[in-house]
Amino acid sequence: MVIVFVLLALAVLVGGNWYVWRRLFRDTTRAPGAVRRAGAAVVVGGWALAVGALVAERAGAPFWLQRTLGWPGFLWLALCVYLLLAVLAGEAVRPLLTRLPARRRPTADAVTAAAGATATGTTAASQVSPADGKPGADRSTVTVGPDRPATDPATAPTPAPADVSRRLFVSRVVAGAAGAVAVGTVGYGTYGVLRGPRIKRVTVPLAKLPRAAHGYRIAVVSDIHLGPVLGRGFTQGIVDTINAAQPDLVAVVGDLVDGSVRDLGPAAAPLAGLDAPSYFVTGNHEYFSGAAQWVEEVRRLGLVPLENARTELPWFDLAGVNDIAGESEGQGPDFAKALGDRDPARACVLLAHQPVQIHQAVDHGVDLQLSGHTHGGQLWPGNLIAAAANPTVAGLDRYGDTQLYVSRGAGAWGPPTRVGAPSDITMIQLASTHA
Predict the structure, then answer these.
(1) In which band, very low, low, confident or very high, does the pLDDT at 314 lie, cut at 50, 70 and 90?
(2) pTM of the full predicted structure?
(3) How far apart are the C-alpha atoms of 338 and 130, rounded to whole Å?
(4) Which pLDDT does position 106 carry in this prediction?
(5) pLDDT (tens digit, 9 = 90+) per residue, 376-434?
(6) Alpha-carbon distance 104 to 204, whole Å?
(7) Rg of the chain, C-alpha, whole Å
(8) Which end of the chain is more exposed for a tag (fewer CB within 10 A), N or C?
């Protein structure tokens, strides 16, 4: 079954790229040549960079190599998505453009006919031949008749150069528009990520929250994804944004990094500058990068890791569980350990990276779960895929007596690009129903 799936995915990938190449390069040229070969080289080379970037990151290749491949390779992935979507959208426009009335231009036959008519008039008014003094005796004049040309074909007017065929013209228009839309979309989406996340404010009422805690603010930041593309400057921007908002507590809910402490320790270092008490739980990408070393690193930076653990704050319990990916290392989520024998009369806020953990949270009487993981889909229409795998893609939902808030995340994985899912740092303001 796995082999069948891989072969099917490979066939779709190859077919999709061939289709894009055909529409952008083959259909816009008259014959095989340099343009088609250059297009094929761009497509093949782009995917070579993309695969190289993915393999280098997961294999722990030298960091300079990851950075060299990361930017062009990951951006190519995003560009491919929107080139394909734009070209597909162009299929709806193509028939309309083809059927638009074209301005008529004189044809070669029309030019010849007009020349014949001119020659007819000229013959009728010819001068008297110097040979015999009779009209029409000049033997160099060609007699015009219904079946004879008015002039010698060798001296007939040359038709205007042929225009580009309508089909070729339409293909070029659609391909140019598709390329411009794809590049513009990826460019704007990349700018949105590199600019840094914006604060999103959400109020969450909790029935068990005491009146004294009304207005308590938790800055939720997830999915920063430090790596070969997003580095120290990006982290510093996040820290500055959080500190400017002055939360009471910071919750880093997983997927902080895509790499080792050796490579990314300097990129994560600005987290030590967070002003408010800060807590951390692992995400699935920490287990790709070495979760144990990162737990120790964030502890060194001043954050408190909640590894299936709970801390009792003055007005509510704050708990955290490991990500599901930790099960492969015997370090999976343990709700009983994190939430067992606590006072059920107190409100409980749970940090859990993946939204799918909400069902266990409901079973353990959690009041509010804070999650990330989905990126809100990151690249539209990725939200549709994310919705198929997660109970909530982004925002606030309720499951029984438990509320779930899912952040779209602060960074991006793979392409440093977001379309239809802007990055954010969510400021959760807890509200007491007794206030």
Answers:
(1) very high
(2) 0.83
(3) 122
(4) 52
(5) 999 999 999 999 999 999 999 999 999 999 999 999 999 999 999 999 999 999 999 88
(6) 67
(7) 35
(8) N
In sign, the C-alpha dihedral spanning 326, 332, 337, 339 is positive
178-202 CB burial, b ≥16 within 10 A, e <16: bbebbeebbeebbebbeebbeebee
Q: Enter the tokens of residue 150.
A: 């008015």
| pLDDT (0 to 100) of residue 123 | 46
Q: What is the pLDDT of residue 155?
A: 52
Q: What is the 3-state secondary structure (H, E, C) of the chain?
A: CHHHHHHHHHHHHHHHHHHHHHHHHHCCCCCCCHHHHHHHHHHHHHHHHHHHHHHHHHHCCCHHHHHHHHHHHHHHHHHHHHHHHHHHHHHHHHHHHHHCCCCCCCCHHHHHHHHHHHHHHHHHCCCECCCCCCECCCCCCCCCECCECCCCHHHCCCCCCCCCCHHHHHHHHHHHHHHHHHHHHHHHHHHHHHHCCEEEEEEEEECCCCHHHCCCEEEEECCCCECCCCCHHHHHHHHHHHHHHCCCEEEEECCCECCCHHHHHHHHHHHHHCCCCEEEECCHHHHHHCHHHHHHHHHHCCCEECCCEEEECCCCEEEECCCHHHHHHCCCCCHHHHHCCCCCCCCEEEECCCHHHHHHHHHCCCCEEEECCCHHHCECCHHHHHHHHCCCCCEEEEECCEEEEECCCCCCCCCCCCECCCCEEEEEEEEECCC
Backbone angles phi, psi at 76, to 5 degrees: -65, -40
Q: Does position 107 have pLDDT exceeding 90, yes or no? A: no
- Residue found under tokens 């796995």: 2
